[in-house]
Write a structure and sequence with these properties.
The structure is a single chain. By secondary structure, the protein is of the alpha/beta class. It folds into three domains: about 5-125 and about 250-425, P-loop containing nucleotide triphosphate hydrolases (Rossmann fold, 3-Layer(aba) Sandwich), CATH 3.40.50.300; about 130-245, Domain 2, N(10)-formyltetrahydrofolate synthetase (2-Layer Sandwich), CATH 3.30.1510; about 440-525, Formyltetrahydrofolate synthetase, domain 3. Helix content is about 35%, strand content about 20%. Strands 1, 2, 3, 4, 5, 6, 14, 15, 16, 17, 18 and 19 form a twelve-stranded mixed beta sheet that branches. A hairpin with a 5-residue loop joins strand 24 (about 540-545) and strand 25.
Length: about 550
C-alpha cells in the first residue's frame, strides 16, 4: 500500500468553493485561505434549513498511537458520500504539540484523509495562534496592571490565569517570571499550559456567537484580591481587544476529504485535559448544511464522549442520533495484558482478555441512553480469527458490529459501517445526562468516576477540599465538571489497562473556568502541559527543496 504522503500526492482536490457549493453555502459567506481552505462566516447558520442528524464517533481506551478515531470518522463520512447521501463532517483542529510530539498529525490516514494535510497540521488558518495571543494578552494585562500601581489590588500570589503555547514543553510547567529588577515586572510564580487546555479555547468552542463569546470573556476568573475577592477579565477593560484577536478564529474552517466529503475543522481542546470536542459552531454548521453530520470526541468514551454529552450537548442542546464506538485488535490485546512492543503479533487469547475494556465502554454508552455501533478499525497485521472473536462477542450482546477497512479502501471500506449507523439512527432515544447540574460537585465527580470509569471511591486532597469550599462560596456549584485524567486507562493511573476494578480516583485540584462554564477537575498526575517523547515526531519532518513538507501526517 502507498504511504499517506504518496496517496495525497496522487490525489487532485476540488476547489474549496465547489465543496462549499455542494452543501449549499453561498460564496458571500466564504473567507478563503487559498484554493483549498476557507473559513465560513457564522452568518451562514442563519438559514431556515432544518438540522440534519448527528453521529458521534468515540472509541475504547487507546494505545499511545491512538486507534484511528479520526480516520474512522473520515472513512465513515466518505462511505455516506459513496452512497450519495448529504453528509458533512465536524472535526477538531490539530495541535502542534502532538503533531511534533508523540502522535503526529490529526488529518486521518491511508485513503481516509482530509487535505491539505501539511497546512491543516501546521498553522492551518491561524486559529491556535489567535487563541494563544488572546490568552497571553490577558496574562500580559494582569502583570502590567500590577506593575502600574495595581488599583484592583490583585494578589500576585492568587493569580489563577496561566500563559499558554501550542507546543509540548515540560520545562515551562512551573516557572518564576518578572525577574531582572525593578523595571522588569513583579516577580511571581507562574507557568504555561498547552493552548488546547486554554480556557479561551474552551470558550471559543462553546460560544454561540460574538455576543456570547464577549460575555464569556467578561466573566472569566483571573485571580483574587488581597482580601480574596474574585477578579474577572471585565475589570481589566480588555475584553474587546481579546475579542478582536478572535474575530476571524470564531468562524469555522472548511476543507475536504480525499473523496470530496465536506469537512469543518474548528477548535481543538484535548479530551484528557479539556472538554475534547470541536466547536459548537462547526457542529451546527455541519448539521445545518447536510442531512448527516458526523463528529468525534477525543480519546476514549470515558473522556471525550462523556464531556460531549454532559457539557457540549447540554449547553448546545444537541443530541446525536447514533454513537460509533471504534476499537482495534491491538488495543484489545494491550488491555488483555500484551506488551506494547508485541501488539502486532497475532494472539486470540490476549484479544479475548482485552474484551473487558470494550464491554465497559459499551456499558458507558448505554448509561447515556444510547446503543453503540462497534466499528473494528482493521490494521494490516490483524487476523480474521482475531476479528471474528470480537464480532461474535459484540453481536452476542445484541450490539451492531462492523469491520471497517476505510484506511486501505477509503469510503468503500466503511459501507457496512455506514449501513449499520443508519439503522441505529432510526432507533435512537434522547440522551440522558450522567448527572444533574443541581447535584453537589462531589456527587457529580462521583457519578463520572464511578459510572464512567468504574471506580470504587473518590478521594479528595486537602487542596481539593479547599477548592470545593471556595467554589461553594462563589456560588458556582451549578456548573458541569470537566475531569482531567490519564487517557490510557479507565482509572487515573495510566498503567492500569483492561477494566480496572476496586480502584480509587484521587482529585488533587478543582479549577474554575467561569467563562467556559465548567469546573476542571484534576486527577492523579495529569499535566496540562505535555512533554515531548525521547524521539519526537518533529525528527521525522522533512522540507524538500521545492518547499513541500512531508512527515507531518
Amino acid at each position: 500500500m502507498l504511504s499517506d504522503t504518496e496517496i495525497v500526492k496522487n490525489h487532485q482536490p476540488q476547489p474549496i468553493k465547489n465543496i462549499a457549493s455542494k452543501i449549499g453555502i453561498d460564496d458571500k459567506f466564504l473567507i478563503p485561505y487559498g484554493d483549498l481552505m476557507t473559513k465560513v462566516h457564522i452568518d451562514a447558520l442563519k438559514t431556515s434549513k432544518d438540522f440534519g442528524k448527528l453521529i458521534l464517533v468515540s472509541a475504547t481506551t487507546p494505545t499511545p498511537a491512538g486507534e484511528g478515531k479520526t480516520t474512522t470518522t473520515i472513512g465513515l463520512g466518505q462511505a455516506f458520500t459513496q452512497q450519495d447521501d448529504s453528509v458533512c463532517l465536524a472535526l477538531r483542529e490539530p495541535s502542534l504539540g502532538p503533531c511534533l510530539g508523540m502522535k503526529g498529525g490529526a488529518t486521518g490516514g491511508g485513503y481516509s484523509q482530509i487535505v491539505p494535510v501539511d497546512r491543516i497540521n501546521l498553522h492551518f488558518t491561524g486559529d491556535f495562534h489567535a487563541i494563544t495571543s488572546a490568552n497571553n494578552l490577558i496574562s500580559a494585562a494582569i502583570d502590567n496592571h500590577i506593575f502600574h500601581g495595581n488599583t484592583l489590588q490583585i494578589d500576585h500570589r492568587q493569580i489563577v490565569w496561566r500563559r499558554v503555547m501550542d507546543m509540548n514543553d515540560r520545562s515551562l510547567r512551573h516557572i518564576v517570571l518578572g525577574l531582572g529588577g525593578k523595571m522588569q515586572g513583579i516577580p511571581r510564580e507562574g507557568g504555561f499550559d498547552i493552548t488546547a487546555a486554554s480556557e479561551v479555547m474552551a470558550m471559543l468552542c462553546l460560544a454561540e456567537n460574538f455576543s456570547d463569546l464577549r460575555n464569556r470573556l467578561d466573566q472569566t476568573l483571573l485571580g483574587y484580591t488581597y482580601d480574596s475577592r474574585p477578579v474577572f477579565i471585565k475589570s481589566l477593560n480588555i475584553t474587546d481587544a481579546v475579542l478582536a484577536l478572535l474575530r476571524d478564529a470564531i468562524h469555522p474552517n472548511l476543507v475536504q476529504s480525499l473523496e470530496g466529503t465536506p469537512v469543518f475543522v474548528h477548535g481543538g481542546p484535548f479530551a484528557n485535559i479539556a472538554h475534547g470536542c470541536n466547536s459548537v459552531l462547526a457542529t451546527r454548521m455541519a448539521m445545518k448544511h447536510a442531512d448527516w453530520a458526523i463528529t468525534e470526541a477525543g480519546f476514549g468514551f470515558d473522556l471525550g464522549a462523556e464531556k460531549f454529552f454532559d457539557i457540549k450537548c447540554r449547553m448546545a442542546e444537541i443530541d446525536p442520533a447514533a454513537v460509533v464506538l471504534v476499537t482495534t485488535v491491538r488495543a484489545l490485546k494491550m488491555h488483555g495484558g500484551m506488551s506494547k512492543e508485541q501488539l502486532t503479533t497475532p494472539d486470540v487469547d490476549y484479544v479475548k482478555a482485552g474484551l473487558v475494556n470494550l464491554d465497559k465502554h459499551i456499558e458507558s454508552v448505554q448509561i447515556f441512553n444510547k446503543t453503540p455501533v462497534v466499528a473494528l478499525n482493521r490494521f494490516g497485521n490483524d487476523t480474521d480469527e482475531e476479528i471474528q472473536i470480537i464480532r461474535q462477542h459484540v453481536e452476542a450482546k445484541n450490539i451492531a458490529f462492523a469491520e471497517s477497512n476505510h484506511f486501505s479502501q477509503g469510503g468503500k471500506g466503511a459501507l457496512e459501517l455506514a449501513d449499520k449507523v443508519k439503522i441505529a439512527a432510526e432507533n435512537t432515544q434522547k440522551f440522558k445526562p450522567l448527572y444533574q447540574l443541581e447535584q453537589s460537585i462531589v456527587e457529580k465527580i462521583q457519578a463520572v468516576c464511578m459510572q464512567m470509569y468504574g471506580a470504587k471511591d473518590v478521594a479528595f486532597t486537602k487542596d481539593a477540599e479547599k477548592d470545593l469550599k471556595h467554589i461553594e462560596s462563589l456560588k458556582l456549584t451549578h456548573l458541569p465538571i470537566c475531569i482531567a485524567k490519564a487517557p490510557s486507562s479507565l482509572s487515573d493511573d495510566p498503567l492500569l489497562h483492561g477494566r480496572p476494578r476496586d480502584f480509587q480516583v484521587t482529585v488533587r485540584n478543582i479549577h474554575i473556568n467561569s467563562g467556559a462554564g465548567f469546573l476542571v477537575v484534576l486527577t492523579g498526575n495529569i499535566m496540562r502541559m505535555p512533554g515531548l517523547p525521547k524521539v519526537p515526531a518533529a525528527e521525522k519532518v522533512q522540507v524538500l527543496d521545492d518547499g513541500e513538507i512531508i512527515g507531518v501526517g
